[in-house]
Design brief:
With 365 residues, this protein is of the alpha+beta class. The chain has three domains: 117 residues, no CATH class; 42 residues, no CATH class; 163 residues, no CATH class. It contains nine helices and 13 strands. A hairpin with a 2-residue loop joins strand 11 and strand 12. The chain starts with 7 loop residues before the first strand and ends in a 5-residue tail after the last helix.
Length: 365
């Protein structure tokens, strides 16, 4: 899913250094090959944001307004699983009958699968996929739909290959380093439960932040004044809790009112921390909702309000400005958390407040 219409799923990246002046030419030189070059191995390269076969990259078609908009395209041939299975079974049955055996050994079945794949693959149509990206041409933050680890690796490698710059994913660790000049990779674990020792809970600044954000939204009303305006934050279900060790490592609460459930309170008391939740931000008349992964800062299904009566370019720029505003509000909340979490005195006081919140939360039965 791209950035033009509908809800948006994305990661943000810091660019180091900024985009080079001749970035359009560099993307053009690393454009996706023609599908005529597609053989057994996959091919990849850049195309414009218009469609996955638009290999002709120019300043005009690679931008919308002040934003660069491209897609990392990948083309490969795949044999559909049902077709591959059917051909393999036919080959295996014939081989077993010829050998007079009831079944074939694993090694021979594997060989047959390889032979069938090699025979069918050249006749398969190309399978196209893409990782959309967008960024301000004079900005230092890029947005990309590289959500999975494989997509992330492919995208980062492609940016480095094409532009010779680093696309650094915005994670709890990189955001703390960029915004607060603090390394948080070795921050000691802290328990949000009065019934669980610090040494028994998961470390991870992202997990701490998401759990703190829940506390902040309920116990402290969730209001934050920033240079970009006043933000109000609320959390919504579904909720995913994690904790390594004894018992269930992950608990997911979906139906009903997860935030008010007895299961949520039990998860907190047992030392689990919030790993994923739906974050709802409000600024004046603007509202955003997205599912947020605490450990990676991946945002899924971000809802962006649509402004009426705008032309195509203005509508796209409005959507991108809205993404920037959401990210600014979210990271400002992260800044507020870091100021407290990394100050030993303040965090000691906050933990007492959090423990009281955990034990005294009202639940619905």
């Amino acid at each position: 899913m791209g950035f033009d219409t509908g809800s948006i799923s994305f990661r943000a990246f810091y660019l180091q250094p900024d985009l080079p002046r001749d970035h359009i030419d560099q993307f053009s030189q690393d454009a996706a090959p023609s599908l005529d070059a597609l053989g057994r191995d996959s091919i990849s390269g850049w195309v414009t944001g218009r469609h996955l076969l638009d290999r002709h990259i120019t300043d005009e078609n690679a931008t919308l307004g002040s934003y660069l908009r491209l897609t990392l395209m990948k083309a490969e041939r795949k044999v559909p699983a049902p077709l591959l299975h059917a051909h393999c079974v036919m080959e295996e049955l014939a081989a077993a009958e010829a050998q007079g055996v009831p079944y074939l050994k694993r090694e021979e079945r594997s060989r047959i699968r390889g032979d069938v794949t090699a025979r069918l693959l050249p006749d398969m149509p190309p399978h196209l996929s893409g990782i959309p990206m967008a960024c301000r041409r004079n900005g230092d933050v890029m947005f990309s739909a590289a959500l999975s680890e494989n997509q992330l690796d492919a995208f980062v490698i492609a940016i480095k290959r094409t532009l010779d710059i680093d696309a650094i994913p915005v994670t709890p660790e990189t955001a703390a380093l960029r915004r607060k000049h603090k390394s948080v990779t070795d921050v000691a674990p802290t328990s949000f439960s009065p019934e669980c020792a610090d040494t028994e809970v998961n470390a991870g600044i992202g997990l701490d932040f998401m759990t703190w954000l829940w506390f902040f939204s309920e116990a402290r009303r969730g209001l934050l004044e920033t240079a970009e305006g006043s933000f109000e934050v609320q959390l919504e279900g579904p909720l995913t809790f994690v904790m390594e060790g004894h018992g269930a490592h992950e608990a997911r609460l979906r139906k009903g009112e997860p935030l008010l459930s007895g299961e949520a309170k039990t998860a907190l008391l047992s030392g689990k921390k919030l790993n994923r939740a739906r974050v709802h931000l409000v600024r004046d008349k603007q509202e955003w909702t997205a599912d947020v992964d605490a450990e990676s800062f991946v945002f899924r299904g971000l809802t962006v309000e649509r402004e009426q009566g705008l032309d195509r370019i203005s509508a796209f720029e409005s959507r991108m400005r809205s993404i920037h505003a959401f990210l600014a509000g979210f990271l400002s909340l992260f800044d507020l958390f870091l100021d407290e979490r990394l100050d030993a005195t303040r965090w000691s006081e906050a933990r007492q407040e959090i423990h009281k919140w955990v034990t005294s939360r009202d639940v619905q039965r």
